[in-house]
Amino acid sequence: MNGQTSNRNEAQQAERRTGEPPFAFARMKRRWDALDRLDLRFRWGGLGIRVLRCHLTSFAPGQIIAAHKHSEYEFHFIPKGKGALIVGDATYPLQEGLFYLTGPDVVHEQRSGPEEPMYELCLHCEITRLDDAGADAAWGDPLERREADECLAILQTMPAVPALDRYHGMNAFLDAYRAWEDQPVGFYTTLKQHIVQILLRAARAHAAPEAAGSIPARDMNDHRFRLAVQYIEDNAARPISLDEVAERVQVSPRQLQRIFRSEGGTAFRDWVEHVRLQRIAEELLSSSSPVETIAAGHGYGNPNYLYPVFKHKFGMTPSAYRRLHGIRPPGAPEEETDHHERKKN
């Protein structure tokens, strides 16, 4: 990487010496085929994307690329220079800031202007529908699949007519190249994201305004209830209050109490007690610790308070609960345990 950084700095200095305006994509000329050499293929929603070419190229003044077609998708972005695109009987002028897509089987000819080179950022890729099992709705897979399908639908109907790169798809090429230079942690995922951005930004330029997608809105009462329940689960071993949890989920204590009654069917205090008693019951069966020690470890600062609430929920004392399941702490005779708990009650 140090060698690449040195070369990068030298090239930038050379550009400054020429007196020409800086070319933002000049760094991509040094290893123009760097991304082409990567066997980059990935899943996006229900689509399989295989990158065939992703590079900066240039056409000499007056150069003509004879009419041809591809069975894949080829995105062309013009970061510098002028030229022309010929599709059928139509000729379209090309200049800096434009892009166009030649989709499958679109016959096209490209010509560079007579006075200066024309540069092109090219993404050439296969897009294949993947026929596999359904998506996991809990983790947003259907949303990604929908957006990928919507993008492909636009690309399939996009005319081979140059349009303004309004959403800066060219920047994604440079970001992908920088990722190759730096090779950060998550290099593959980073490249995938930049390629997807090129597809999306191209599609947006031709999408109807009403085609904008949306993320489903949350039921905020349910969301806040889940956040509060998770906070209780995480902190039940220590004293927690309604005010504390309300502050965490950013509602008033009164509103949180209403949320617990509407979403959980019980009061906040009863929910906390339920969580603690369930954990105490589990530990009574998995540990030989004294009841007082277990109570203190689950938020009951005064262990004496545990006995009546435990009996109210389970219909028996903690020691009776242990005996019911065939468990008795070592050295704790039945008579002494019963006598001790009778005193607590």
TrEMBL record:
PROSITE patterns membership: HTH_ARAC_FAMILY_1, HTH_ARAC_FAMILY_2
Keyword Transcription attached: yes
Organism: Cohnella rhizosphaerae
Stored InterPro entries: AraC-bd (IPR003313), AraC_XylS_family_regulators (IPR050204), Homeodomain-like_sf (IPR009057), HTH_AraC (IPR018060), HTH_AraC-typ_CS (IPR018062), RmlC-like_jellyroll (IPR014710), RmlC_Cupin_sf (IPR011051)
One Gene Ontology MF term: sequence-specific DNA binding
Protein name (Swiss-Prot/TrEMBL): AraC family transcriptional regulator
Keyword annotations: DNA-binding, Transcription, Transcription regulation
Positions with biased composition (Polar residues): 1-12
Disordered: region residues: 1-20, 324-345
HTH araC/xylS-type domain mapped to chain residues: 226-324
Superkingdom, natural source: Bacteria
